[in-house]
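Q: I'm writing up a methods section and want to include an example of the input and output format. Could you take the sequence below and give the corresponding predicted structure tokens, formatted cleanly so I can copy it straight into the document?
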Amino acid sequence: MRTNPKTKNLLSKSLFFMLLVIVVLISGCSNSNNSNSTARANNTANNEAAQGSEAQDKTVTVAISSDAGIDRLDAGAYDGSMNVHAMIYEGLVEYGEKGEILPSLAESWDISEDGKVYTFHLRHDVKFSDGTEFNADAVKFSFERWIKDPANSLNVATAMQSLVVVDEHTITMTFNKAYYPFLTELSFARPVRIISPSAVEPAGDITGKFIKAIGTGVWMAESYKTDQEAILVRNPNYWGEMPKLSKIILKVIPDPQSRVLALQAGDIDIAGGQMGKIPVESVPVIEADSSLTLQKAQGTNSHFMIFNYKTPALQDLNVRKAINLAINKKSIVEDLMDGIGSEAQGLFPLTVPYVTESNNTWYGFDLLEAKQLLAAAGYTDSDGDGIVQKDGAPLELNFVLQQAEYPEWKSISELVQSELKEIGIRVNLQVLEPNAYYDALWTSKAYDLIMYRTYDDAYNPYAFLLSLFHKTADASAVVWSDPGLESLIDTAVGTTDIQERQTAYDSIFSKLYQEAMFAAIYFPDDILAVNNRVTGFKPGYSTFMPVFWNLLDIGEK
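A: Here is the clean output for your methods example:
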């Protein structure tokens, strides 16, 4: 049977329109998917693109000062490298610039009016690097695994009353007190990050033996040689945007000068910061090398001098003020630190939360006023030997320090020694090995003056103030004992009102200044050296994430 040409044409058109309708219907169904599916599709496309052939061989080598400890990198422990911990594992929240708390594995959270109940709403469609599901049960497993340790002193552990899984993506934590740093503690690199229940044997047992580092983070361990190197590669199941690099090699180089030589030879691409400090004296060498770039960022810690409040002379406010006024902090930066860092203007730099231009102030450099204050305290040079006396006793102080961890402390302390001599105070320097140094600081109190440093980023200001300026059940405050100051610290950490908290911190910093409870010394910068073949470098906001690793790329600048 023959088909009429006109009929054949009509059939062709009919088939065309039917196909068109089918395509439109399919497209409509696809567009009706929720936003999570769309985002997931876009993310998958981005990740597939990042894993293309061009990116597969993009490798950066980073110097670290000590073993990465991959074989003991349990998310519920304090062992292994803190930096690597933060690359493999993620927390519910993330530490942002100047302490801003940002979403991570928790998309959002609610806090009860009394500040004791936190409800976290978890991300959907997240997997661990081994492909197992991330959910509220995994969060509960991770928390129960680390808070079981009686040695754990974090408030988020000791104050927790209950941990309840509401549903697959919701978990509630109830605490016995209001304490604003709970969220800050949840951003720490360890031990509050989330590990897969399959990372222990038997799987899911909170007392199980750790067998492998399995997290939700961007990176996962590919290989590891103790005291030599650790190689990290992309986590193929990562929920966010994939990094541009395919691999990061962490090479152990304990000696600081050897790290500089390795940079110059091109054996490593990045060195410095908390991963392994670069000596200040090597900075000009790096700056003169056309293949390297020195990256500087204002740090979050400070170096300062502790007064022993049991030393009779240091109980006099005028003496403490005089010591502060005799220290030329500008000279420390310009003459000793090659211009790296800044003059200390208080206990913490402006990079620390709640530190502002108005509450960040300290004593200047004024030798004449310092001498006048000593005279007002009853100290005079009665025998003309250059050292002031009171009641026949010379003003002589023992100044303790160590240089194994902070080599610059030796030259700084020698400068302070000479400056205090200018106002008539004899200072005896005692350089101790680290163990003896920390014993003097924490236990024996065998010093009049001792050099120390504040903690870094997420631990400031609250944790440092509690640790050093607040009594415990067993002992009085380490740095300076003052009930009024301790009351202000209690108010700051216990209030849920942000303005009340800021006011409390303003009062804390003001009291530290008025009572000259320490001597400010130096605000160091974080310095890193980077091979020019590495692009996209940006310093991180915390010591446990010193670099935004995901932004790094390889290419000519």
